[in-house]
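Propose amino acids for all 81 sites.
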């Protein structure tokens, strides 16, 4: 699996955090994402968005695929990239 950089974190740092989150979900330590915090959808793909990979569990946000993409597109546009 390949994943790109985000803000100051490399793809490999992000992938490590995301694997850890997935493991914690599997162990029952974190509830699986079930409802988008933006649009309220509970169907389709819902993932956790991590804003701070230095402290990823502090602010996990449940986002559906559509809202997750919109978040990253808006952030990219805001940064001029």
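Proposal:
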């Amino acid at each position: 699996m390949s994943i790109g950089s985000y803000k100051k974190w490399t793809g490999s740092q992000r992938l490590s955090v995301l694997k850890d989150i997935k493991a914690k979900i599997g162990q029952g330590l974190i509830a699986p994402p079930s409802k988008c915090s933006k649009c309220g959808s509970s169907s389709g793909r819902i993932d956790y968005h991590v804003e701070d990979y230095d402290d990823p569990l502090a602010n996990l946000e449940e986002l559906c695929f559509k809202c997750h993409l919109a978040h990253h597109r808006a952030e990219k546009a805001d940064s001029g990239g």
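The chain has one domain: 11-78. The first strand starts at residue 46 and ends at 49.
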